[in-house]
Amino acid sequence: MVPSTTTTKAGEPPMMTGSGALLKSLELLGITDVFGLPGGAIMPFYDELMSQTAIRHILVRHEQGAGHAAEGYALAKGQVGVCIATSGPGATNLVTAIADAHMDSIPMIAITGQVFSTLMGTDAFQEVDIVGITMPITKHSFLVTKAEDIPATVAAAYQIATTGRPGPVLIDVTKDCQQGSAPFIWPDKVELPGYKPVQKAHGKQVQAAAEMIASAERPIFYIGGGAIRANSQKELREIVEAVGAPAITTLTARGVLSDKHPQNLGMPGMHGSVPAVLGLQESDLLIVLGARFDDRVTGKVSEFAPNAKVIHVDIDPAEIGKIREAHVPIVGDVREVILDLLPEWKKVKKTAKPLTAWWERLESLRASFPLGFDDLDDGLLAPQGIIQKIGQMSGPEAIYAAGVGQHQMWAAQYIEYERPGAWLNSGGAGTMGFAVPAAMGAKIGQPDRVVWAIDGDGCFQMTNQELATCVINDIPIKVAIINNSSLGMVRQWQTLFYDGRHSFTDLQPLDGPEFIPDFVKLAEAYGCLGIRVRTEEEVEPAIKLALETNDRPVVIDFIVSREAMVWPMVPQGVGNSNVQYARDHAPSWDEE
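The chain above was modelled as a monomer; its predicted structure follows.
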């Protein structure tokens, strides 16, 4: 192996290859774990990785798995996640995970190899313009062609990914850049002209917010994932309790305010709790903290919270006013804004209107529409009860990563989240296949916690190859497959809105073998413990065995009813006042 550094005169910066500089830069940033898959254009960097012990590299089975693992790592550990791929298809296989991180504001650095700079634009083998491809789904995409530019680029990428509204940054490094040499000069300060995220809000805006809260009769805190990114859980609880108003936590904010907190009405949106959905709908003031008025929360925007004024706090100015007019717009870090708001609230608290009638209305909704489910008459397991039992037996210190679909919504509803970082899922992009690699990344980031991947049989078949990565690298995650033999959420929509025409959503042939594939055999082939559960009596012992098994991953195949549906539900394209608590009748649907 060619050495990455050469000796220089005293006081001069060391000479390093570009790949050596890339590795050194990651070390200086405190990166300890990366996920990747080598190939021709990134080979010099992988050669460099062999010569060091500071950074642990997890060899994945698919680059998408590397990206989702980096996301899970970032979400669970609260630090930037790093994924690595080669050029061409290696880089494009990262695109889904990069888009996912972009939608959910997850700090991630994606490093890709690129063909020699002299070959770019010639349609060389495995040449793809990954910088161009990822521009719409990253905070920034860098192309590095000179070894001397690597330290400053990596430092800038880290700052961009982790400050302001977090997100993914791509660094595309040509092969000749990796092989070339230059003095290693780490920047004392990162200069990013035009990039100056606002942390502190304008004092007059904060004062106006406090006065508006005091004048409201039906205020509600609408808390989004930005509150978690801001590490604001302590301050958030203080302001919620100081004001005394109800709060809701969106899908990506679950846990930032404990589900056990008496003021937490639960999750809003298409499959939110009735008190949360109608609480927003009937409010006269939305105190929006780090949320972006996603369509899955608002329903038909023109009918969303029609009588409410809006205080909107977000670190990204582009989000304020994008969907809903903000009467008090506040650009700033959620935590910093709350710290400024608390003393302002104390000044006006005596003038605040009583919320007694508002709470009476909300408590009546809680009493009338409690979370619950009915067992179906087909003799198969109710998936909601299984997920609820997993949460009860594993507890609030565990981490739960979900795929996308019915099982995701049930996991959001039936597990109680008491802390940030306990609930990992693909919110904005809705990426099937997220759970297993994200759980793997979370377990690397938090090795002492129990980590569950709660997956559907459709999602599981997209990324289950990362179980091999888990076995080889001693990453003992637990996987619960909620196996309804179908693409459950699509099937639910087909049942409700397409007269029961289940077009291409059955994953198992109705007149063929029972299991294609057999997930228990598949788990065993990977070296995992495989368990199948069919009856109520088997549920608790299977979960107990999974929790006791820590020398390898565990896969439990829960055979559940394909007729189970996610309730409550607000159909797409209608107002949230049309929330359906259960399937009394097929809800109306006006697709837009």
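Residues 585-592 have pLDDT under 50 and may be disordered.
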